Amino acid sequence: MSESIAEYIRKHAVRFEDKSDLDTIINSIGDARYVLLGEASHGTSEFYTIRAELSKRLIQEKGFSFIAVEGDWPSCYRVNRYIKSYYAKPPQLEFLLKHSFTRWPSWMWANKEILDFITWLKKHNDEQAIQKKVGFYGIDMYSLFESMEEIIRYLEKKDPSRLESAKKAFSCFQPFEKDEQEYAISAGYLSESCEEEVIKLLLDIQSKRESYEDDLEGGLSLELNALVAAHAEHYYRSMVKGDTETWNIRDRHMTEAVEKLMDFHGPEAKAIIWEHNTHIGDARATDMAEEGMVNVGQLIRESHIPKDVYALGFGTHRGSVIAGDAWGAPYKKISVPPASDDSWEGVFHAAGTHDQIMLLKEHHERFQDVKGHRAIGVVYNPRYEHLGNYVPTSLSNRYDAFIFINHSNALHPL
Superkingdom of this entry's organism (predicted)? Predict the structure, then answer.
């Protein structure tokens, strides 16, 4: 009788009991320049703390340049300014996180786990020369109106000669009163689009980037905010066409943002990317591919040689999570029921009711089968889990390694 996958995991998985066991992952990453760290849910404490520990070691031991997260550029750039001591009068960190991350779900970044990690990053950067300070950036693209405001604010201070052209470009959006949904309806159904205006502004900013040499990172922020405005406009205009189109716009934007950050940090740059498993795990190893969807993990793998890219997925069998009942609803702590027995989480649990690390690259053949892999978003109802929370996944084709947390705990919002 052939050995079951649970028996194989029992023999070959690394028991994950303390931080030193992460040596296994650090060694497996090798010389990769793009390290993608996932999460099976947005509201699980262990995913944040383990990613933070891995990121600290990648920064200290392998010289990684920046962390790019699934957050808005303007909000995260305020954190970047804090950890690099750009503020003349630095705000108190808890105040900064609470007041920077105001777009729902604010708890994704305004939480104790992030506060502890940002505290560490600030202390680390205080001991580095300016060119060695590690960055913290948001690569998502929901902040259409906030990014436009940041562009106006920057030009008012740094380049008043171009201020009027920017205001003229953004005047197209004024009738929508900072409501992305209103714009989506108007652009999608009534063809009242501001596409031409934002594309022209983006191209103008990109063509004059060298004029900001006295403020290189401020110029980078200007360009990224313009990129967000252009892609967010496209995203909201496409909402009426369905999930596949908007998903691809978003993940292509996040990939382009990462590459611009890599270019900015130079030829030796190395990126740590924090996003949900559905973004960092190769879409071609799931049913997303059948629906015509791509993601960050796939796009980065396609653009670089295999040894330069390393994707780490996460999973949990049971526990608790922070999420909402509906989009925009207040967060609450929700119990996560035991995973389905025939899912990847169920198989790892059957192999041992403890936390585990599996290096999938080294055991590729045994993890190619397709099984359900649980994914929990910012909206979650465990009663309906079986209807859409399991992504059919070939685990070793989706990730290079996998961390299994048998019993996980909810995030701690500030």
Answer: Bacteria
Span of 79-88, 207-216, 218-227, 281-290 with lowest mean pLDDT? 207-216
165-216: per-residue pLDDT in tens?
899 888 888 888 777 878 777 776 666 678 888 888 888 888 776 666 667 7
Evaluated on CA atoms 326, 327, 330, 333, the torsion sign reads: positive
The total of other beta-carbon atoms located within 10 Å of residue 185's CB is 16
For the chain, the straight-line distance linking the first and the last C-alpha, in angstroms and rounded, comes to 53
Measured in whole angstroms, the distance separating CA 214 from the mean position of its chain's CA atoms is: 30
Higher pLDDT, 363 or 199: 363
Using the Cα atoms of residue 344, residue 117, residue 297 and residue 26 in order, give the sign of their dihedral: negative
80 Rama class: left (phi>0) / alpha (psi -120 to 50) / beta: alpha
Per-residue burial over 73-100, b if 16 or more Cβ lie within 10 Å, else e, is: bbbbbbbbbbbbeeeeeeeebeebbeeb
- Pairing relationship of beta strands 309-323 and 401-408 according to DSSP bridges: parallel
Whole-number Å distance between alpha carbons of 106 and 250: 19
Q: What is the pLDDT of residue 271?
A: 98
For residue 401, give the H/E element and its range: strand 401-408
What is the three-class DSSP state of 89?
A: coil
**Distances from the Cα of 39 to the Cα of 111, 126, 221, angstroms:** 16, 29, 27
- State the Cα–Cα distance between residues 184 and 180, nearest whole angstrom: 6
The helix (run of H) or strand (run of E) holding residue 69 is strand 66-72
Break the chain into its structural domains and give their ranges: 1-64+271-414, 141-243
Copy the structure tokens of residue 101.
Answer: 């991350």
| 344, pLDDT greater than 80 | yes
Q: Does domain 1-64+271-414 have CATH number 3.40.1660.10?
A: yes
Q: What is the pLDDT of residues 270-290, one digit of tens each?
A: 999 999 999 999 999 999 999
- CATH number for the region 141-243 comes to 1.20.1440
